[in-house]
Amino acid sequence: MYVNRIGTFRDHPDLYGVSVYFQGCDAKPKCYMCHNPETWHLSEEYKRPSEVVTKIIDEKLSSLLRYFPKAALVFLGGEPLAPYNREEMLSLSKMFKEKYGERLTVVLFTWRLPKDIVKENLLKYVQYVDEFVMGRYLHTYRRDGFPASKNQIHIDRRTFERMIEAVLRRGHYEGSVFVRKRI
């Protein structure tokens, strides 16, 4: 598992949480003035045994949930949906969502938008995500609020599913080619 760092941060507007910064970002080009450029490059230096990562996250979540009724598990990076991070993100989100249930809000930060999730066939990897922060960070639209760039969207699961349905109604992708449905 490629992890740059794990910490207890405020990467959610309302909840304290445990943030997992994955190492490696597959966005091309990279976001200008990215908040975490140190997470861009994939390196064996950041390879961690999944048992160690799981234990750290669990200890931090357990501690937070002793004091708060609800906490967030936030996946950022780098890029959690990069090909080399997907399976680990899915495994962690499933494990902790099953363990903590409604007391845990799983949040995914990704440069991808709903159309990219469909195009890249990534729906299975986000099935345990409760909230999404989607879109590239654009420094031109930087703000002090949440999310950090005005063009990014912060949506809940229900809104995400409606957006996915809208993308699917318009057609589907075959390889890299989008095929419109015939009516």
From TrEMBL:
This protein's UniProt keywords: 4Fe-4S, Iron, Iron-sulfur, Metal-binding, S-adenosyl-L-methionine
NCBIfam families from the UniProt entry: RNR_activ_nrdG3 (TIGR02826)
Molecular-function GO terms, alphabetical: 4 iron, 4 sulfur cluster binding; catalytic activity; metal ion binding
Organism (species): Thermotoga maritima (strain ATCC 43589 / DSM 3109 / JCM 10099 / NBRC 100826 / MSB8)
Needed cofactors: [4Fe-4S] cluster
Protein name (database record): Anaerobic ribonucleoside-triphosphate reductase-related protein
Domain of life: Bacteria
Xref: InterPro entries: Aldolase_TIM (IPR013785), Anaer_RNR_activator (IPR014191), Organic_radical-activating (IPR034457), rSAM (IPR007197)
